[in-house]
């Protein structure tokens, strides 16, 4: 079993994030870290390999510094890494990103692709499904549990209305949510071992991707405007009378909190 | 937040290790320390987390699963852990102390049998020397190991045992004959053996998350190979272990003092009085300056001992000096930190009152500071 885990380098979600004049994220304004949700995908991949054997590979697309996110996955125990980096990639949207990741996965070969459900910077939550679409593979979304039986992957998913169990034949793409597991910390030995693991640098030419289909020019979507989030308004005060109970229950129910 | 100490480290592996330690301190230790200490709950899960990351066994031999790190790096990890949570920093050092005799004096067969498992990260060890009437006067111990046909029978009680009742293995120093220098030996005692038990934890002034208990050995049958090192070598092993342990306690003290200084410094930058920050008053200024200076001196003192150990030199006096200076310093610094915060410092809203209660015991354990002075004095003028 060969598992590719996609990881993204993002600005630390605990730091102040800023947009540039062209509405793109200022990646130099904050410390760059591995996307938190991707560490759950790494943990999922490591657990599957611990149970069934096989190899794991961390894949990222981004500037040269994206290798740091891959190294973090290697410290956690992933076997090897690959980074697609190319000047032509700057400004790629979700569609362009999915094209590149899918081309890299096709080139590297995989039985299973595991991804975090979203990145903490763009928060589109669409790249895993788009990658599956480009590859022509089944997509199992928002997994909080994953098991492999032969050539079949089974996930469990919590929805607003119930609990889904979904199966697909391998190869498949799985996106995982935070409930999946608790990502492990690297071990001291894992840190030293990670330095000896290889991270291959892949280029668009090497993958056979037409540079005009990626980057700003190849992206069908663009951000037209951006504004800081409005400051939080005053809450609603409910008077202390019997009607308050149903008012509060309605309030919570509308937001699907009860 | 983990400390802001700029560390002296030999290579990038050690730097990455300290970064990992700080990440774990921030995510797993600092936030929950106060609640565990308030309720006296032993954080076994935290030790599992440390164990899985290899942090419980950093200074032990690599061939059996340890980290193979020099003391000069290991002790700085102990300092960082202690700054975040003394129960965890000291517990890590006690685990190491409880593994020391096996790792250094055990033979190949004993190490194969027990050390690999001990260094797996899933086990916690403890060290049993003191008894109710044999504390500073350790040689007065009466716990006895008696030979029988196919091994030993261990009988007696050990007092003030860190991890007593929660440890998986105990290194026990026991009497194997009535008198003479060769009267005492060291034994490896798994807690699962019939007859091993512990009293309820002591009710202490601080460091309540770390359980301290009397451990009882009720005619525990040990196999012949439970003897670590030579017969009669026990006191030598015990004192050798204390050299390592005392340097670790110095590192623990420096860690808590550093944490107290950082709280006091941050508070003195925020708190306004008479129209200015209290940190701008010379009275507070000088207190912070003295705290920082003494912390830096204590850190260098334990590192001197660490480097000597790494070079294979004798550290009897240096370990005693580091333990004495660092723990007296930590008592003063944490007391001053409470003073800088004033009434707020005396409340549980800030951690400094807890630090002050916790470091008191560091002046007592692994040889009281009076014993440390005796050790240093004997090294100067001879016996």
Describe the structure.
The complex is a heterodimer of chains A (258) and B (383). With 258 residues, chain A is α/β, with parallel strands linked by helices. Helices cover 29% and strands 24% of the residues of chain A. Chain A is built from seven helices and twelve strands. Chain A has helices at 36-52, 67-76, 94-108, 127-135, 188-194, 204-207, 243-254, and strands at residues 2-6, 9-11, 32-34, 55-61, 80-84, 112-116, 139-143, 145-149, 152-158, 163-169, 172-176, 199-202. In chain A, helix 2 (67-76) packs across helix 5 (188-194) and helix 3 packs across helix 4 (127-135). The longest helix of chain B has 37 residues, at 234-270. The N and C termini of chain B lie far apart (47 Å). Chain B is an alpha+beta fold. Chain B has three domains: 12-118, Butyryl-Coa Dehydrogenase, subunit A, domain 1 (Orthogonal Bundle), CATH 1.10.540.10; 125-233, Butyryl-CoA Dehydrogenase, subunit A, domain 2 (Beta Barrel), CATH 2.40.110.10; 236-381, Butyryl-CoA Dehydrogenase, subunit A, domain 3. At the A-B interface, helix 5 of A face helix 1 of B.
Placed side by side, the strands forming the largest sheet of chain B appear as 1-4-5-8
**How would you name the oligomeric state of the polypeptide chains in this document?**
heterodimer
The order of strands across the largest sheet of chain A is 7-11-6-1-4-5-12
- Work out the largest interface and the residue count of each chain: A-B, 9 and 13 residues
Structural class of chain A: alpha/beta
Morphology call of chain B: globular
For the record, the CATH class of chain A is Alpha Beta
Domains of chain A, number: 1
